[in-house]
């Protein structure tokens, strides 16, 4: 663990993307991201969980040669969790950058996932970084950190009725909407990610599409990620019907009616 | 206590399962767990308290040769309780892994019990560990911990109307449903765990089945665990009727009507 | 105070019960406690304040030769208050067991009074200690403490409508119900504890019985403890009517009507 | 300030009552206090602010030769504020008793004012000290403090509809009710405390009695303390009518109607 | 900054009033303050913001030759913010008095502004200081501080429906009511404070009087302080109408109707 | 990072405005700011986000030769975040000014953005600094900081129904109202800031004006900042219609109807 305690030669070493992440584009999103990055405009990705936002960001980080620092936001996240703090450790006291200041200082892509979970005030620290000033006041360190020229800010969240970012935060971002990929893309992803045969993949996508038609909750919840997991279990040798039970039916809901409805669909497709 | 203060040779020594735990399977759950483990897919066990989830996980840890690190979740649990912290102790300052980082670093089965009690934000730290990335950002330690290849994540909770995991958390798990074992299994468990004679065990299971028919609360509450306790008191020499009073009637409820109802059943079976 | 700062030879010295506590049994509770202790099953005592639960536990600790570590639960009690913490004191930093870990480590009877006042999450730490595992994870100390073979857990609370333990906590205990002792026992206790003459004691118990018939609140509140206090004042030379005013009437309520009602009874008995 | 940092020879020096406090008894309260003290029964004084409870306690402390440690309770008071804590100060770390442990350790009268303002859980620490055990568990100091034989606990509060102590706390005390002294006592107190002529004092008491008849709020609020202040201003040379305006009218209320009503009474008496 | 870190020769040096503050009396308030100070009775000043309370206190501090320690109360103010704390600074640990203990120890006038904003419990620490005892228990310092003979306590707040001090706090103060000065005084203050010509001052006061007639909110809000600011801008060369827009209209409200109403009055007086 | 840890020669070095910020005046705001600054009257800028308030302040700081210390207020901001604190860092303990004390001590323009987000109590610390006293009590440092003669305080917020500053805070400021610049100014800003051709800029402003007519939300949200971003994407080569989708449509709202309405306008203007 000594490597951790010394000032590392490359402070972003842990956050470099090691291998090219598989990403199947579903539109012009790659070019749009590049245009925004050319101007260093902060980006907001909107869409339900499991629809490929994180994978897309990983892909873009790899493509642009940027280290990727990811933060999963939550309502207990304080400004200090993003900005850093003074730590007392085995070598005495030292300033430790948080993920945001680390990325801004050394020039990484900083990706804040589920931004809407964060308390509005924790997001206020983004304001001077996300407008033309591109600075981050680190009050506890007595420092006004100017962002590295390569630094880029990307955030994402799943839009939900009744919850919104404050306008002053929101209007600092250029936004892109994501949703479940079209059926052929779903099949291709399943073949690549789960290792299913195309035909198996198509049947599974067929089940998902019917299930998503059940209700709105299903539409949001039965994500690409869940399909990939079901596919992996099948490819790993589990009986298809059982894999659906574990990865889709039980994973989807605890409510008896919803469980029944999805089970009926699964029974029909995997008799 | 000096052993505690030195870096232990085997940091998981305390958490190895010492002897094979008795577990009576009630279906295909053992094979399903193994299939999910082969792919290292995180597992969610759903079911009421005392129905055997913890015992099942102990059994699987033993079977797979994995140390078992258990965490009972509660609403005051902060992310730091899972991830670890810098401690000041008799040897100076040192980083101490939390149960989750300990298990992820050294390759244990990490079992989070009663997941639904935890605040959603404490669960957000599970996200990067529970998807294809299998990493745990330890921000306070300035470290991005890649999970050990043998590391496996299992969680459980008792589904309750009106409480649910956030979809982004939930869809990262493959799920299995548990409930009270079938009657013959209950009898077998009582014989093994409490040391009752089969006939005694059957009478006790009979009482439980009738009691569970009383109302929904009883169904959830009169668990296998309570039966085992009643059985142990009987096997230890306490009069059966008194053992029921202590381990079932009084332990079940404080409400006079419910106490009366259960008492009537006990009176009938143990006159 | 130096004795406090050194590791004491007998860490439970303070908590040994010095002399046999007077306890007048009111049923089979002594044998039932012993049966549960033989199996080390955790015990839950239910009943209103002042009805003898604490005295009973003191008695059993003396009888079983166990030191008694008592904790009065309250809603601000955190897990660390039960489990212990790292302290910085005059001798440097050292780990200090909390009452629960102290009792579990060295083999005492640990009595948690008014359990229902504690926040549910503080009680979650009891779970692995109160089932067949009998272990206490001390995360801050990096230790999985296995309970001493003689360790026993006893808890108590006063059942109140609308407040209950979580089922997962509750079903880990074998339960016994307590209430005010029968009249002859009350008299005997008053004679022994307050030093009253039997006739004086009977008159006081008579007042209490009539007062308890007033309403439910009185039934719960006019406890054995209050009678003992009234009796002590009388035995100490205070006029009986005045002793009732101080120890019963004013101590019972601030509401004018209730005060009047009880005063009328006292006036009748002690004219 | 060095005296503060060294362990003082007499830890209660600051809290000894220097001179005999003037107290005019209004009934048998002095003898009743002495009877309760003979048995070391904890005392609860009930009554509105400013009616003489604190002065009575000071008087009794002087009479019994006990140092007096007073604590004004408030809703932010934590258990540690009563029990003490480890402090880091110029001489290193040291344990510092809180007012309650100080009084219990060295044998003082501990007076908790406005007990009802404290959070119920802070009061839970009083339980073992206020029953036959007379011990105070100082968990942070790893100590079970046995109370000094001379230690006495007295608490007070102003009963208010809808607020009450928990029964488990309340029934540990013997209670005495206080209210405004009778008119002759009021006059005597004014003469002694404010230095008024008896005739001046009678006129002021007359105003107060009429004002208290206005409404219930006035009855509680126009306390002996306020009369003493008005009397002091008069005795100091301020015009009587102006002294009433400052010490009674404006001090009593901000509501125009109430101010008018009291002013009318004052105008009538001091034309 | 070294002067800060050494114990200063005169601990109240910063708080001495350097020059005689201009104050125009509006009644007998100066004599009344002096009478209360002669008896060291704590004073409560009631009135809307900006009506001259602070200036009056500054004036009295100068007149009486007392240093003035001012505290602006707020709902996050804890008892420690008034009483002091142990600090770790460059010279090691040391006790630092808070503003209240500083004033009480060395004999200053302590002025607590906007007392009603403070949490009731923070005010409880005032009780023993504000009655005949005149002591301040500094529990964290293990000290019972007796107030300096010259120490005086003054508090103020703006009475608001539905908010009140607790009676136990309130009845410890002698109270004086403040409101906007009469018109001639307003003119005189404007001439002195803003440097306006009397005629200019009278026109501005005329505007204010008409505006205060608009509604109750205006009455409270259009304070002497705002008039002084408008006057200063005019005297500094800004066009009168524009000065009113900035210092009165826009500063008064964000609501379009209120802004329009005040603007109409300003247009009429400064066409 | 050593420069951070030493007391810097020029403590405001980071906060000097490096180059003249482009600002297009829309009225007399520059002269009004200068008049208020001549008297050092605190200024309050009211207006929606993105309408140019920050840029205006940057411009004035440059014009007046003042360093600019900016603070984005949020509801978790405590008084200590403005005033400073004692820090333990690699060089030992040292006092670190917060942004407000830094600016007040050394003579900068301090700009508090989104003041209304701050908790009222955090704003109480502004009171003595924002009236004629111009002092800042730094209680934790035991210091009464007199503001530097050049120090100026400016705050801003976006007025919203139902939220207001407390009168005692508000009446300490002279206020100016901001809104979206007039159309020609918008065009000029777009040409300068985004590098658009005037004709492109006019079309974009035309779209914005029509969109702002949609509803009130749009009026507030479609700010100058968003137009500049859309213009930058266009000038960077992105197709105009796509740039509107990302920088205006998706960035504006997640609600389908609003997205449709704005999209229809964009389709009409960029067919
Ligand atoms: N367009 C895509 N290309 C490749 N994989 C995808 C794509 N969309 C979804 N996936 C799969 O779905 C999983 C979940 O996607 P992820 O990016 O983590 O979702 P989100 O960040 O939106 O919650 C990924 O691990 C990947 O297997
Ligand atoms: N299938 C089973 N095999 C063996 N023992 C069981 C089984 N189910 C329940 N038990 C018994 O019930 C007790 C409670 O089960 P446990 O696994 O702790 O429940 P849960 O984790 O669901 O709350 C166990 O200690 C064991 O004695
Ligand atoms: N069965 C009993 N035997 C002896 N004393 C008793 C008994 N029941 C109650 N008491 C008396 O009542 C008092 C209060 O009982 P305690 O055990 O403290 O009550 P609880 O713990 O239920 O609140 C004891 O101090 C004792 O004097
Ligand atoms: N019986 C009494 N004898 C002497 N002084 C009294 C008496 N009752 C009230 N006082 C006067 O009233 C003041 C307030 O009484 P205090 O004891 O502080 O009230 P409480 O504690 O009930 O709020 C005292 O300072 C004293 O001047
Ligand atoms: N009677 C007065 N004499 C002199 N100046 C006054 C008077 N009343 C108000 N002022 C002016 O009004 C301003 C605000 O008064 P201040 O005492 O700060 O108000 P408050 O403390 O009531 O909020 C002062 O700075 C001063 O210029
Ligand atoms: N009057 C103006 N002159 C120059 N640029 C302006 C003007 N008004 C707005 N802007 C542009 O709009 C952007 C947002 O303005 P800003 O001052 O940050 O808004 P606010 O502080 O009101 O939220 C600026 O970066 C700038 O490009």
UniProtKB/TrEMBL annotation, chains A, B, C, D, E, F:
UniProt KW keywords: ATP-binding, Nucleotide-binding
Protein name: Nitric oxide reductase NorQ protein
Residue ranges annotated for the ATPase dynein-related AAA domain, each copy included: 42-173
Family: Belongs to the CbbQ/NirQ/NorQ/GpvN family.
Molecular function (Gene Ontology), one example: ATP binding
Domain of life: Bacteria
Signal peptide: none
């Amino acid at each position: 663990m000594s490597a951790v305690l010394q000032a590392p030669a490359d402070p972003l070493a842990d956050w470099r993307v090691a291998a090219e992440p598989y990403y199947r584009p579903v539109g012009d999103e790659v070019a749009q991201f590049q245009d925004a990055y050319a101007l260093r405009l902060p980006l907001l990705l909107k869409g339900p969980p499991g629809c490929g936002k994180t994978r897309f960001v990983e892909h873009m980080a790899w493509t642009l040669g940027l280290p990727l620092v990811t933060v999963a936001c939550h309502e207990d996240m304080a400004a200090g969790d993003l900005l850093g703090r003074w730590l007392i450790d085995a070598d005495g006291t030292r300033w430790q950058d948080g993920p945001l200041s680390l990325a801004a200082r050394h020039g990484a892509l900083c990706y804040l996932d589920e931004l809407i979970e964060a308390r509005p005030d924790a997001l206020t620290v983004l304001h001077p970084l996300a407008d033309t000033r591109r600075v981050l006041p680190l009050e506890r360190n007595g420092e006004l950190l100017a962002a590295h020229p390569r630094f880029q800010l990307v955030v994402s969240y799943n839009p939900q009725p009744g919850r919104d970012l404050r306008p002053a935060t929101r209007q600092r971002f250029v936004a892109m909407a994501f949703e479940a990929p079209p059926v052929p893309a779903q099949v291709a992803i399943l073949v690549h990610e789960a290792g299913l045969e195309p035909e198996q993949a198509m049947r599974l996508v067929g089940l998902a599409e019917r299930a998503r038609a059940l209700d709105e909750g299903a539409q949001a919840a039965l994500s690409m990620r869940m399909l990939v997991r079901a596919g992996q279990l099948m490819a790993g040798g589990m009986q298809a019907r059982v894999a659906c039970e574990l990865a889709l039916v039980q994973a989807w809901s605890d409510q008896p009616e919803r469980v029944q409805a999805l089970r009926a669909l699964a029974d029909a497709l995997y008799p």
